[in-house]
Amino acid sequence: MCLESMGAEAARSYVDLAQPEHPCLIDVAHLVDERFGVVNIPNSLWIDEDGLIVRPAEPAWPSAPDLAAEDAPSEDAETEAAPPPPGRMGDMMAAAAEIVTDRVPYVAALRDWVAKGAESEFALAPADVVARSGSRGLDESSAAAEFELALHLRSQNDLESARPHFREAHRLAPGNWTYKRQAWSIEPSPLDGPLARFWQGPLPGAEADWAYESDWVKDATAGGAANYYPRFRP
Amino acid sequence: MLITQTRIPKADFERGTGWSIRPEGACRGDVCVPLSDGLTGNDVDVAGLANALGMSIVRHSRDLAALGPASLGGRALSSAEAPDLVLPDFAGNEFDLCSLRGQKVVMVAWSPY
Predict the structure, then answer these.
(1) What is the pTM (predicted TM-score) of this model?
(2) CB A167: neighbour CB atoms within 10 A?
(3) What is the ipTM of this complex?
(4) Minimal Cα distance from A183: which residue of B?
(5) B26: phi then psi, degrees, rounded to nearest 5
(6) Contact A145, B68 (CB under 8 A)
(7) Most buried one in A11, A14, A195, B40, CB count within 10 A?
């Protein structure tokens, strides 16, 4: 499920490269956020053969790295790592390097569920699935409505009218990263290529023109980038 | 869902929110919320349903508003039953999540930003 209001073409190169054998869908309206409680990516939900969710939205990773290879000293181990580039790019790289991803326990749990089904300790009871799904009160409901208005107005090429709704969605649901990342990623970027969408902040020298209260680096580091994703919870 | 009028066809509400209007009330999965008689016709009053289901209505202009998702129970999921979801694939063909019934499904959300 690709959450991308800019449409399939904005994401097609990734799909072409991956050549997935599974269904690969485009969600321009972020229905997956609204209906399943996804608030960041990558996230996954597990659904059993009867259509029951057995794990609600949580950070998900495509594979466990080869830890043995990762821990082994590389041939370049004594070569001093290149310093990060100056400015925002360096800040982005430093924050990204601190992000913790529980690839090993997540993939092990997934394999356990695939093998054991309902007997897996990682398959949650329905009441626990509901309880662990994200918070949703009237503020979150309003945030979703604001976000939908923003996406609609942007699709009409009226980004000026969309921005106040994006800002309000961010204020009402500060823990929803998809609302933020989607909005920030359609603003101008000084970068080219695939990294351009990850800039998500003010242009150098034009900080006063940035349309939002925050940006990715500021928000990701506010609580410590290591806490960017919730840890895997068995 | 986007709304442009205060009363809309029941089918539009159901398609836009994932909640179905039945004699016993507004239902999604194994959860049903009783409704008053005025909310169960062929056209439904959006404000009344929003109030019953804890959905916010946010207005952009006189002619355009959006209806937020239900907030019953204070959680994103009101039931463990997977909500309905139909989305296009990258070739433009509609894909219904329900078509995977009988298989385990790992639903992964990602984006290129």
Answers:
(1) 0.92
(2) 17
(3) 0.95
(4) B113
(5) -90, 125
(6) yes
(7) A11
